Amino acid sequence: MDAPSTWDPHTHPGPVARSYAQRRLAWEEQNLSPLAARSYPARRAVAEEDCGLRTPLQRDRDRIVHSKAFRRLKHKTQVFVAPEGDHYRTRLTHTLEVTQISRTVARALGLNEDLTEAIGLGHDLGHPPFGHIGEDVLDRCLQRRFGREFRHYEHSLRVVDVLEREGRGLNLTDDVRDGIRCHSGRAPTPRTLEGRIVRLVDRIAYINHDIDDAVRAGVLDEARLPQAPLDVLGRTGSVRIDRLVHDLVEHSERGGDIVQGDEAGEAMAALRTFMFDEVYLGAVARREHERIERVLQTLFEHYVALPDGPPDGGGAPGADLAQRVTDYLAGMTDRYCIRTFEALAVPASLPL
User: Fold this and answer.
1) Are residues 104 and 110 in contact, defined by beta-carbon separation less than 8 angstroms?
2) How far is Cα 344 from Cα 47, in angstroms, rounded to an integer?
3) Bridge partners for 44 per DSSP
């Protein structure tokens, strides 16, 4: 029987791995737009030797997909808390939709698809349970108790920088980190065009798929959607996304930046305003807000009052109490948060 191989492909790379980076660099120079971010050199907080079969950006993508935070997205709310049905979006399916649309835009514009994909997959890793309602409740708890704020896009960066790998972080490249931190409209503009694609596509995706889910849930009567934006963008979510993507690509190509046309941009903004008024801040959401506030506030106050804070330290070693409680609560899935609340609030002698 042959002895186990001790060959290390990194210290003794084969011919494909030895030439990969140079071939990829040449391909990018020939095929990508001059405005595109390049895959090399890798700028990381901690320098690493490059992989022989993946660009640094592909490596970042793989680290995100294999992270614990990414796996938890499948049990985190997009809009509807614990919906009854198999076809509602979760934070994970939203992430995948944003990523695939963003890659389409990047390819059409000759930009770096690998960078766009890594940012898209990582942009919502820091979302707390219960979607934007949970973000608002956690933010207010922190402000009242510690004078701090919670922003999911900032926490997404903390997840990849600090919390993953038992406190070592993923050591992602600077352009991916910038795109994750700046993907929200409340954050500074991303420095790369690829990051700006994800920032705008995130909005395109959630407005349209949230309409679909709200109609399916019976929260929204499709006949009540404002007609003027539908006249511009279309009557179905797929048609609207298609038109918005075409508009985005054509205007961005002409403008040398990631921009929408005025007509499409105004129509999308009108739909977004309608969704905030009728769905995100509507009567159903307000009822859910009261329940979610009770759950998260109870857990927040419980962990703040514990002598040692939340279990397992609550986050990265060395963090103060406010940060450890934030890390612990923001990392929860919806169902784990509910189970934890029930275990704390319901006497053990009472059947659930």
Assistant:
1) no
2) 44
3) 173
CB distance 337 to 299 below 8 Å = yes
Q: How many helices (H) and strands (E) does the chain have?
A: 16, 0
pLDDT digits (tens, 9 = 90+) for 254-308: 999 999 999 999 999 999 999 988 888 777 777 888 889 999 999 999 999 998 8
* Residue 32 placed within a domain: no
Range of the domain at 167: 57-345
As a whole number, mean pLDDT of residues 22-35 equals 97
- The answer to whether residue 153 is domain-embedded is yes
Res 1: pLDDT: 43
Quick one: which H or E segment has residue 64?
helix 56-65
Question: How many domains are contained in the chain?
Answer: 1
Q: Would 169 be classed as within a structural domain?
A: yes
Kindly report the CA angle at 122 between 39 and 340, in degrees rounded to 5?
Answer: 160
Which tokens go with 152? 């999911």
Which tokens sit at 344?
């704390």
Q: CA angle, 275 as apex, 269 and 277 as ends, to 5°?
A: 105
Enumerate long-range contacts of 215-224, CB under 8 Å, 24 or more apart: 216/85, 216/87, 216/88, 217/80, 217/83, 217/85, 217/88, 219/80, 219/279, 219/282, 219/284, 220/278, 220/279, 224/278
* Structure tokens given for 27: 């391909």
Q: What is the CATH number of the domain that holds 256?
A: 1.10.3210.10
On whether residue 301 sits in a domain, the answer given is: yes
Query: What proportions of the chain, in percent to the nearest 5, are helix, strand and coil?
Result: 65, 0, 35
**Contact criterion met (CB below 8 Å) for 80 and 213:** yes
Is omega for the bond preceding 83 within 30 degrees of 0, making it cis? no
Question: What's the pTM value of the predicted model, to 2 decimals?
Answer: 0.93
**Residue 348 pLDDT grade (very low, low, confident, very high; cuts 50, 70, 90):** low
Q: Does residue 84 register a pLDDT over 80?
A: no
**Tokens linked to 210:** 């949230």
